[in-house]
Amino acid sequence: MNLRPDPTFYPSPKLAMAGPAETLAYTLMLSPDASQPDGLAVVNVNPQSAEYGQIVHKLIMPNKGDEFHHFGWNACSSALSPLSGHAFLERRYLIIPGIRSSRIYVVDVKGGPTAAKIHRIIEPEEVFAKTGYSRPHTIHCGPEGIYVSTLGGGGKDGTDGPPGIFIMDCETFDVIGRYEIDRGPQDKQYDFWWNLPRDYMVSSEWGLPPQFEGGVVPEDLLSNKYGHRLHFWDLRARKNVQTIDLGENHQMALEVRPAHDPVKEYGFCGVVVDTTNLEGSIWTWWREGGKFHAKKTATIPPEPAKADDLPPLLKGFEAVPPLVTDIDLSLDDRFLYVSCWGTGEMRQYDVSDPMNPKLAGSVHVGGIVRQAKHPSGNAFGYGPQMVEISRDGKRVYWTNSLYSTWDDQFYPGDRGAAMVKADVGKDGGLTLDKKFWVEFPKGYRAHQIRLEGGDCSTDSFCYPSA
Amino acid sequence: MEGLTGAAAGLWLAVVASGVYHGVNPGMGWPLAVSAALMERRRAALWRALAALAAGHLAAMLAILLPFAALTLLIAWQAEIRIVAAVLVIALGAWIFVTKRHARFLARVPPSRLALWSFLVAIAHGAALMLVPIYLGLCHAGEIDAGHEAAGELMGTSVGIAFAVALVHSAAMIASGGALAWAVYRWLGLKVLTRGWFDLDRVWGASLVIVGVVALATAW
């Protein structure tokens, strides 16, 4: 119990950047064939330590088939607003949903790297009964507690009603119920985030469970049936106030990254693939005159390839799409990192001018055709995927798995888990750290990373950096 | 007579002191004034936010005190009313002390509606209720002539005292909270929030209990 706010809560992004550097990373491990239970790996990321780049603790769950994907903290810097009424929560629990099982684990990580233990398990039946939703995904802590986005509705295949967001109590972790009072035209769900003082939320769309659980459905993709819209919400009124269609060829609008400084009324979203030309794209959305707008501000072209080098899914195209599957924004709102999972590239854009992203750095590692090796000499299976940035913006970490069944379609065979790190130059530029190569236990793949004390896709700030 | 004046002075001091106490507690809203000024990049926003917080706090005080002002008409039941008020305050204080729970509906208030938020938070956390025993004490201290006053006059007096208590308390609250907000905005910086914000839930609950107990002890 703290008498003062948790020292890892920061009023502004600027103060968060000045905080101490992370020494631990938490990485989710999933068993793609559900032959082993999923787990949480605690990775030492302190360059001064003899265990740098090693897994120092593994917490293996008691169930199989959860498919760990995204996760988040029980509390973050958003607690520092008097409006939250919860200034004295501790950043102590990781909320880890199973995207396939709909089971949610609450893991207590207090007490050092080896002390992580399960605090509570919320069984899928409780989620179904209290929300009518399934397949929980993104976690954010906000005004009314812990918000969890889901990818599925009710019923066995998750198509009985639309997916949405539900709220959990931030102290007891009880599932409270649905978030939406008026969802408007929203019928698919992926990511969401918000600007707390300005009281709006933005959500995005992937696809419904039958469109992803067994793998990408090529007919659905080519007929533009995956999500391609952004939804803007009055956060506290729980109402969808505007929906922007990015155009149906812009398939799968995934990660939503608002500027961290709450003064700024803009953010970004990554689109996986344009079905007319296989491009990946970055969109900038902003609010002006009380209305939201969105514009494509950067595109990444596909790379030509021989049919023989391509998996069956892509043979006919004779090209590798970049597949923009994750993006992440540094706390100073300066650099946007873009994972090109297909071509095996991590791109760094300078987005000081959000309407005009400029490529500032890039490294190649992995890739469907390129298969670039890590400087340590290890083969990097798959491509750069879930990316996380240190609070000070100097280090970028990423893993390589997208989603079990999709991994197998784009990268047939088992290519192993990987987690790597790159150092950021003073004015941009990326260099892979040769010494940082995490060995994962056999049969596992690695997904999202969370950093000790918060990172660039966790904390919501209530006070400006100025 | 002298003793009564002394008691009244002490009670007025309590009105001011509780105002200062509510004002400096970040949970009552002064950081929102700092946030407003930083968000709008001008200091006028700080004063506007403080005015909204003060208005909400004042309204909450009146909403709780005025019904008790009406009750003071029941002169024969004076002691009982004071006892009931004291017990209410103790009960709320004990509940806050033990559960440390916060009303979830407060999180539904949009940040743009500061006065409403301030009103609700003062009600929900018992800030307004804390003043009731002090207020009843003041009515009692000035009640020597009550037997001779007509009901109308008596009502006028107790409503007058309720307004005076609410105004003095809210003025102390916003002066202290405002001074802190200004100091943080101008000189100290946002870091103060993480270093100088203490978990007062238990202290707050305890203060309610103490106010109630003192009121109970002096109800006769």
UniProtKB/TrEMBL annotation, chain A:
Gene3D superfamilies assigned to the protein according to its UniProt record, in alphabetical order: YVTN repeat-like/Quinoprotein amine dehydrogenase
GO function term, MF aspect, one: selenium binding
InterPro entries documented for this protein: Se-bd, WD40/YVTN_repeat-like_dom_sf
One Pfam entry name: SBP56
The protein's annotated pathway: Organosulfur degradation
Reaction it catalyzes: methanethiol + O2 + H2O = hydrogen sulfide + formaldehyde + H2O2 + H(+)
EC number(s) reported in the record: 1.8.3.4
Superkingdom in the source lineage: Bacteria
Residues annotated as signal peptide: none
Stated family: Belongs to the selenium-binding protein family.
UniProt-recorded name of the protein: Methanethiol oxidase
Species of provenance: Thermohalobaculum xanthum
Species lineage: Bacteria, Pseudomonadati, Pseudomonadota, Alphaproteobacteria, Rhodobacterales
Automatic annotation (TrEMBL), chain B:
Domain of life: Bacteria
Keywords: Membrane, Transmembrane, Transmembrane helix
Transmembrane segments: 6-24, 45-75, 81-98, 114-138, 158-188, 200-219
Keyword presence, Transmembrane helix: yes
Name of this protein: Arginine/ornithine antiporter ArcD
Organism in which the protein naturally occurs: Thermohalobaculum xanthum
